[in-house]
């Protein structure tokens, strides 16, 4: 554990999903990081929250696209989606 962990930031991020939010099949949940280190959460294109923590951004995205991802299938899908975006640019 990092002794400098920002627990307020973690609680804030967690609170976005503690609400009674309906997530029917096909719901789009998006996470993005801004250049200044905000982790923005959107559901079906509507922003539900943002926390400012470069450390949380790094940990969150490393979980999916870093070494040893929680799901190799998710990492591969993200790579395909990013590749498609890059080809359209």
TrEMBL record:
Gene Ontology cellular component list: chloroplast stroma
Say which domain of life the source belongs to.
Eukaryota
> Where in the numbering of this chain does the Chalcone isomerase domain appear?
8-79
One Pfam family of this chain? Chalcone_2
Molecular-function GO term, any one: fatty acid binding
Concerning InterPro entries, the annotation shows: Chalcone_isomerase, Chalcone_isomerase_3-sand, Chalcone_isomerase_sf
Q: What PANTHER family has UniProt attached to this entry?
A: FATTY-ACID-BINDING PROTEIN 2
Q: What is this protein called?
A: Chalcone isomerase domain-containing protein
State the species of origin.
Answer: Kingdonia uniflora
């Amino acid at each position: 554990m990092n002794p400098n962990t920002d627990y307020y930031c973690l609680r804030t991020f967690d609170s976005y999903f503690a609400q009674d939010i309906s997530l029917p099949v096909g719901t789009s949940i998006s996470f993005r990081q801004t250049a200044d280190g905000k982790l923005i959460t959107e559901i079906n294109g509507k922003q539900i929250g943002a926390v400012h923590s470069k450390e949380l951004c790094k940990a969150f995205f490393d979980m999916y696209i870093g070494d040893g991802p929680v799901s190799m299938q998710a990492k591969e899908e993200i790579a395909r989606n990013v590749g498609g975006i890059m080809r359209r640019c």
